[in-house]
Amino acid sequence: MMISQRSQPFGLVFAYGLSDNSLSSLVENLKEWEAGNPPTLWPNYLCVLEAGVIYHRNKLFEDFHDSNKITAETWPINISFGEDSLFKFYSALHDMCAHTIGAC
């Protein structure tokens, strides 16, 4: 019997709007929350419909969606994609699923 290593699960947050908030303040709220929680619990990707997305980056400006690459050395950033936010969310979800090991 061959035992294979499974990928860590990933977490996505999808929101329909910001209300009276902004992507920048949402990033600050996420940083506060992440400070008290281990990176294994951090969301991989957040999307606010018609506004933008939030994901993690490191010092070399590499973007990370994989759970095993999101560490205390990475931080969340936001990019305003406007009406393209849903497409970016779908692309990131597809990428995460395609790189999942041992899902079956």
Structure summary, number of beta strands: 5
Q: What is the H/E string?
A: EHEEEEH
Average pLDDT works out at 87
The largest sheet is:
5 strands, mixed
* Cα-based radius of gyration, to the nearest Å: 14 Å
By DSSP (H or I, 4+ residues per run), the number of helices equals 2
* Spatial separation of the terminal alpha carbons: 15 Å
Low-confidence stretches: none
- Overall 3D form: globular
Question: Which structural class fits the helix and strand makeup?
Answer: alpha+beta
Beta-sheet strand percentage?
15-25%
Percent helix range: 25-40%
Account of the 3D structure:
This protein has 104 residues and is an alpha+beta fold. It has a domain at 12-82. It has helices spanning 23-35, 85-98, and strands spanning 12-15, 45-48, 52-57, 63-64, 75-79. Strands 1, 2, 3, 4 and 5 form a five-stranded mixed beta sheet that branches. The protein is globular, with a radius of gyration of 14 Å. It starts with 11 loop residues before the first strand and ends in a 6-residue tail after the last helix.
Précis, in short:
This protein has 104 residues and is an alpha+beta fold.
